[in-house]
């Protein structure tokens, strides 16, 4: 936030400006919902490092870091899109089904031909935009609650998948799979760069474009936004398109990683509820209007580190679920307490 | 004042589900004019304004701005045509700052990026234009007082280059001192050639401010008058269609007062410091003060809705410390809150459910059947002269006055010994107001101790047996009933150090 | 307050007797009953045996678990919360029952008691975290879903073990035999009606009125003396206990599997929403919510009869749910 001094005409305005700068800082940095997320992340990393080291394993090695980054990508990208719709006061339960479908369609359209890679990606992106548009239209024009609308969409997509595919779909080209799924620049995997690019783009959209401002406004209050002359339906539809696009990008990435499309990759990963959990873990309010991408990234990393630790300690995957559930509830309980103190 | 006609509304009709709410309304507004619109609640003022704002499309009729016929299908279209509206319920986003709120939906962009500097610069200029220096463009709206928020609303309308500004009950949430500031602001806009439609229940303000007055009743215009050629009595007659003699019921005699029912000593909370007072059975004690002076906080603390840091509350001589409102209700307290919709009513529930809500929480149904004096829903409706279709009607369909009667019924049913009223007649039309005043006095005569918070000084003066005045969390003084407005304001603004 | 005033006020001028009140309530939430009736008639046209007592009772029996879950979901939804944990709770019930009973009939009743207690405890935990600790219930119950799923398989070592006893299964499968004309009155149908009647009574009682008022306006309810946290926790407890009942019935229907409860939380919420319950609280009736569950089950039957392949069934279901809720939203808007 750059400091602009409005006309320094009177002591009154100067004092107000000073008070505001302090206020801005307090609101911007310390009170940012992302602050405790990174506090928690650092804490968890330290704890994980100690626990893993005592256990005789190695935590902060190149291989392990790559592993963690790699694992963050799929959940990370879709959580970024989920952040946008949650900020808006909506949510999207159809992302898991859409991830599966897009992984299948990617493989099917590539059909093993290197020349098909770009068209296939474009087709899948268009499909994502279409699903997002449909979600947005159902919510705005039919006035169906977002929970039911996207749940219905998940059923619709699930049916299409079941009707069209009974098992994995081959056809992802070797080069594409290698490039996106396995290339690495030093510690940084290619896929992580994809995640970073999507994150920066969405961060920029939310922070600096009219659309981003309007997402926060509609999330703050749809009525107020509408009465202020904002065309809220367009914002809602736009946000759902962004969210669905991140879901199909996740699907494309998973297709490259698995070198095939699979009907169950989305649901097995639990991307619908887990992406919501990551967003909320990142300090974004489920009611909308407060939070952002930075927090979500922290939330995704926390889940990735936890995953990694459980793998290293060779914990039963069921224990992992239990701890995950407890962490999510506990984190949100702590945020709630902070919010209460501030109010 | 220029005679150029800015806005012309002709034959506006609007129906909802087959019920016509507006029956052909005509209204015009000149540039640089303040045109007041008065009428009872439910007369159709708000619906009329919403057709102008593009929230509702009129079924029939034309709207002309500068002689050009316009039709708005979205608030954005009305804004583009120069119509700015400040609604009764504020329309600001608490989590966004002042500049972001003012430019919502039309953020300035440069190369696709929101030009934050420009937004803040222009906001600062707009705030300066209205002489507001207590906050700046980047202050989060959450931190602003109600009065400051209203300035933001008006500046927001102004920033649209609104040439037609609609203010819907702008003083409803303001204390007396803040009203003057608002008037100054409105007059300044008037000088700039803005036409102002000013909707208000408070006739005193209408006379102080307006050039012309239009009275609306039952969805139609009764008459448009020049302010200089009319008086309050005529206006009230036109609004309610009947003579109202004497605004306030007679006070009780001094010796009617009973024992002390509510005694507060040394009450301190996050906002209050060492507040002490008592209310006797049969007495109406008024509580005055500016917005934020701690009036409502007293009520909430006594009622157990907010924590108490220090001090004691005695009910009928017994010390109590309520941790939950339920305990207060059990001890015979009732609290008619300031904000009916947010804190008084479950709007989607029926009249009967709302009326019985409080008694249900403190008395099991078996005991209710054997308790004498409990009224049926129908009897409650009779006592409060409620107008409604029946006990199963949802309260959200009732007018403000009738909603308030439902809230009152809810507390009557608990047979309270102490009633706290917070702004009992806010947003209620003239006719219903008198009914509520009568009820409050009647309750006092029946031995209820009444504490009444109000921003409307005539109401406080007319109703109270004694008036307590708050200033910045401290009890600044006590005045006898019938004290003058300047006396109260002196204490409330802190300009008199020692009170009578 | 003379009688003239009453006449002038017109309050209750049209004295509503019970019957009329019932009719007007039906008219306001009636869409679901009409939809249900249309589906029944349509199914009967496609397959006339559906209207015969045997098959119709079989349909009711099949619907009973979802109807019971819908009632539980209703209490939570109407108070302004979500319960996403009921599906996994159903799975927990079946898996725990199989592991503890191990086919031993004598253990049936103690285990059933234990299941009900587990349901209540989980519900209480959901409620406590969502109210006292102020975690949004969507997150609380989502976390609970993960915890329950993880915990139960951790305990059983990955796959369900053990077996249910015959008398445990009989609750879901059997009924009162030898009744003329209908032959058998299934326990589950009886249980469904009993729970339905109890739910209606509960919603009419002080608790129900306080619960729905809390969902409508929490602040107003609190200031009227309602212990909003307590009524909301109770709603979660009811949801948990009803999930236990549904789990016991489902254990009887099918085998012991880890999939038994999957997606049931969404089906229950969908049923409520079909019945006109508004997410966010304060609106809707429990009868309509249960009718919503019957409608959903009828919809599944109808889809089967239409010969829609199992694969596309989900798609059609999704379209119909969106359409029905959109239609309800359209009606609600019209009524304003």
UniProtKB/TrEMBL annotation, chain A:
Pfam family, one: BPD_transp_2
Keywords for this protein: Cell inner membrane, Cell membrane, Membrane, Transmembrane, Transmembrane helix, Transport
Subcellular localization: Cell membrane
Presence of the UniProt keyword Transmembrane in the record: yes
Any one of the GO CC terms: plasma membrane
Primary localization: membrane
Membrane topology, as annotated: Multi-pass membrane protein
Presence of keyword Transmembrane: yes
Ranges that cross the membrane: 35-52, 73-105, 117-139, 146-165, 185-206, 236-256, 276-306
Superkingdom per UniProt: Bacteria
Molecular-function GO terms, alphabetical: transmembrane transporter activity
Name this polypeptide is given: Autoinducer 2 import system permease protein LsrD
Native organism: Solirubrobacter phytolaccae
Lineage: Bacteria, Bacillati, Actinomycetota, Thermoleophilia, Solirubrobacterales
UniProtKB/TrEMBL annotation, chain B:
UniProt keyword annotation of Ribosomal protein present: no
Top-level lineage group: Bacteria
TM annotation in the entry: none
PROSITE patterns in the record: ABC_TRANSPORTER_1, ABC_TRANSPORTER_2
GO cellular component, one term: plasma membrane
Keywords: ATP-binding, Cell membrane, Membrane, Nucleotide-binding, Repeat, Translocase, Transport
Classification via InterPro entries: AAA+_ATPase, ABC_carbohydrate_import_ATPase, ABC_transporter-like_ATP-bd, ABC_transporter-like_CS, P-loop_NTPase
Entry-linked CDD domains: ABC_Carb_Monos_I (cd03216), ABC_Carb_Monos_II (cd03215)
SMART domains, per database record: AAA
Alphabetized GO MF terms: ATP binding; ATP hydrolysis activity
Cell compartment(s), UniProt: Cell membrane
PANTHER family assigned to the protein according to its UniProt record, in alphabetical order: CARBOHYDRATE TRANSPORT ATP-BINDING PROTEIN MG119-RELATED, GALACTOFURANOSE TRANSPORTER ATP-BINDING PROTEIN YTFR
Name assigned to this protein: Sugar ABC transporter ATP-binding protein
From TrEMBL, chain C:
Topological type in the membrane: Multi-pass membrane protein
Native organism: Solirubrobacter phytolaccae
Molecular function GO labels: transmembrane transporter activity
Presence of keyword NAD: no
Name of the protein in its database record: Autoinducer 2 import system permease protein LsrD
Gene Ontology cellular component annotations, sorted alphabetically: plasma membrane
Keywords: Cell inner membrane, Cell membrane, Membrane, Transmembrane, Transmembrane helix, Transport
Highest taxon above the source species: Bacteria
Transmembrane stretches, start-end: 22-45, 57-77, 84-101, 107-128, 135-155, 185-203, 233-254, 315-332
The keyword Nucleotide-binding is annotated on this UniProt entry: no
Chain segments annotated as coiled-coil in the UniProt record: none
Subcellular location: Cell membrane
């Amino acid at each position: 936030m750059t400091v602009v001094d409005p006309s320094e005409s009177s002591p009154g305005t100067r004092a107000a400006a000073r008070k505001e700068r302090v206020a801005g800082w307090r609101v911007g940095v310390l009170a940012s919902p992302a602050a405790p997320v990174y506090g928690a992340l650092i804490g968890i990393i330290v704890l994980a490092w100690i626990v893993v080291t005592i256990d005789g394993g190695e935590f902060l090695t190149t291989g392990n870091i790559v592993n963690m980054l790699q694992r963050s990508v799929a959940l990370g990208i879709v959580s970024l899109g989920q952040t946008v719709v949650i900020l808006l006061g909506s949510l999207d339960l159809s992302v898991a089904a859409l991830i599966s479908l897009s992984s299948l369609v990617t493989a099917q359209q590539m059909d093993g031909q290197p020349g098909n890679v770009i068209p296939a990606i474009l087709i899948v992106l268009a499909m994502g935009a279409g699903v997002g548009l449909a979600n947005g239209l159902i919510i705005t024009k039919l006035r169906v609650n977002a929970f039911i609308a996207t749940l219905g969409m998940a059923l619709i997509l699930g049916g299409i998948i079941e009707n069209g595919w009974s098992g994995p779909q081959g056809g992802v080209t070797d080069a594409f799979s290698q490039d996106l799924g396995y290339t690495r620049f030093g510690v940084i995997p290619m896929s992580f760069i994809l995640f970073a690019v999507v994150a920066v783009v969405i961060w920029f959209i939310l922070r600096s474009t009219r659309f981003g401002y309007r997402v926060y406004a509609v999330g703050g209050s749809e009525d107020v936004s509408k009465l202020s002359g904002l065309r809220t339906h367009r914002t809602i539809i736009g946000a759902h398109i962004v969210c669905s696009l991140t879901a199909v990008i996740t699907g494309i990435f998973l297709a490259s990683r698995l070198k095939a499309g699979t009907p169950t990759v989305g649901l097995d990963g639990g991307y619908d509820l887990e992406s919501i959990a990551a967003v909320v873990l990142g300090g974004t309010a489920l009611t909308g209007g407060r939070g952002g991408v930075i927090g979500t990234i922290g939330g995704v990393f926390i889940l990735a580190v936890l995953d990694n630790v459980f793998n290293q300690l060779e914990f039963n995957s069921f224990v992992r679920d239990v701890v995950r559930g407890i962490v999510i509830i506990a984190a949100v309980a702590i945020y709630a307490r902070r919010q209460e103190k501030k109010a | 004042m220029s005679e150029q006609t800015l806005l012309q509304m002709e034959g506006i009709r609007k129906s909802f589900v087959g019920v016509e709410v507006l029956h052909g309304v005509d209204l015009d507004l000149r540039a640089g004019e303040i045109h007041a619109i008065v009428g009872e609640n439910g007369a159709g003022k708000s619906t009329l304004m919403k057709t102008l704002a593009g929230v509702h499309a009129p079924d029939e009729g034309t709207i002309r701005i500068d002689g050009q016929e316009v039709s708005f299908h979205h608030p954005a279209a009305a804004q583009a045509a120069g119509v700015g509206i400040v609604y009764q319920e504020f329309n600001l986003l608490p989590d966004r700052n002042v500049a972001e709120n003012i430019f919502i939906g039309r953020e300035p962009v440069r190369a696709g990026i929101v030009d934050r500097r420009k937004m803040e610069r222009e906001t600062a200029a707009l705030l300066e234009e209205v002489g507001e220096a207590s906050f700046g463009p980047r202050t989060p709206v959450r931190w602003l007082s109600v009065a400051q928020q209203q300035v933001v609303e008006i500046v927001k309308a102004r920033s649209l280059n609104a040439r037609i500004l609609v203010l819907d009950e702008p003083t409803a949430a303001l204390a007396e001192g803040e009203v003057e500031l608002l008037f100054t602001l409105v007059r300044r806009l008037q000088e700039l050639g803005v036409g102002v439609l000013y909707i208000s229940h408070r006739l005193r303000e209408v006379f102080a401010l307006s050039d012309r007055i239009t009275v609306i009743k039952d969805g139609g215009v009764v008459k448009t008058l020049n302010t200089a050629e009319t008086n309050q009595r005529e206006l009230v007659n036109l609004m309610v269609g009947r003579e109202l003699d004497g605004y306030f019921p007679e006070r009780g005699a001094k010796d009617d007062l009973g024992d002390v029912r509510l005694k507060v000593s040394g009450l301190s909370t996050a906002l209050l410091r060492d507040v002490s007072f008592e209310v006797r059975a049969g007495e109406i004690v008024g509580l005055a003060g500016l917005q934020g002076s701690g009036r409502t906080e007293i009520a909430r603390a006594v009622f157990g809705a907010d924590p108490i840091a220090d001090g004691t509350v005695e009910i009928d001589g017994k010390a109590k410390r309520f941790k939950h409102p339920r305990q207060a209700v059990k001890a015979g307290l009732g609290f008619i809150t300031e904000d009916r919709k947010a804190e008084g009513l479950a709007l989607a529930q029926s009249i009967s459910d709302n009326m019985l809500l409080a008694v249900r929480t403190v008395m099991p149904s078996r005991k209710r059947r054997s308790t004498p004096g409990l009224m049926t829903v129908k009897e409650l409706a009779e006592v409060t002269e409620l107008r409604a279709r029946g006990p199963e009607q949802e309260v959200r369909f009732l007018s403000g006055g009738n909603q308030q009667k439902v809230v009152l019924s809810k507390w009557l049913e608990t047979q309270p010994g102490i009633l706290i009223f917070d702004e009992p007649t806010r947003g209620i039309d003239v006719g219903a107001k008198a009914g509520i005043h009568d009820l409050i006095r009647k309750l006092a005569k029946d031995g209820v101790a009444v504490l009444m918070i109000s921003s409307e000084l005539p109401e406080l003066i007319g109703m109270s047996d004694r008036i307590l005045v708050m200033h910045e969390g401290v009890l600044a003084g006590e005045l006898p009933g019938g004290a003058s407005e300047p006396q109260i304001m002196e204490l409330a603004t802190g300009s008199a150090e020692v009170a009578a | 307050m003379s009688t003239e005033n009453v006449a002038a006020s017109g309050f209750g001028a049209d004295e509503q007797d019970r019957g009329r009140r019932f009719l007007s309530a039906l008219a306001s939430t009636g869409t679901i009953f009409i939809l249900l009736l249309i589906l029944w008639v349509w199914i009967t046209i496609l397959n006339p045996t559906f209207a015969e007592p045997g098959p119709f009772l079989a349909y009711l029996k099949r619907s009973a678990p979802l109807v019971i879950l819908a009632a539980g979901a209703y209490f939570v939804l109407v108070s302004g919360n979500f319960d996403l944990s009921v599906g996994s709770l159903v799975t927990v019930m079946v898996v725990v029952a199989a592991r503890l009973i191990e086919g031993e009939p004598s253990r049936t009743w103690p285990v059933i008691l234990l299941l009900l207690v587990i349901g209540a405890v989980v519900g209480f935990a959901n409620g406590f975290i969502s109210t006292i600790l102020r975690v949004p219930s969507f997150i609380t119950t989502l976390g609970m879903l993960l915890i329950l799923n993880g915990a139960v398989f951790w305990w059983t070592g990955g796959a369900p073990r053990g077996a249910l006893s015959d008398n445990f299964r009989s609750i879901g499968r059997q009924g009162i035999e030898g009744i003329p004309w209908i032959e058998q009155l299934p326990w589950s149908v009886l249980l469904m009606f009993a729970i339905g009647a109890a739910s209606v009574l509960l919603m009419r009682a002080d608790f129900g009125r306080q619960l729905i008022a809390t969902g409508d306006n929490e602040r107003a309810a609190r200031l009227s003396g309602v212990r909003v946290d307590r009524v909301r926790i109770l709603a979660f407890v009811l949801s948990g206990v009803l999930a236990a009942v549904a789990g016991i019935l489902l254990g009887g229907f099918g085998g012991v599997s880890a999939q038994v409860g999957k997606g049931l939380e969404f089906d229950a919420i969908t049923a409520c929403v079909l019945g006109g319950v508004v997410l966010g609280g304060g609106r809707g009736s429990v009868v309509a919510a249960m009718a919503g569950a019957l409608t959903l089950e009828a919809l599944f039957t109808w889809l089967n009869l239409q010969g829609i392949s199992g694969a596309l069934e989900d798609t059609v279901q999704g379209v119909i749910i969106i359409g029905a809720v959109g239609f309800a939203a359209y009606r609600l808007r019209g009524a304003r």
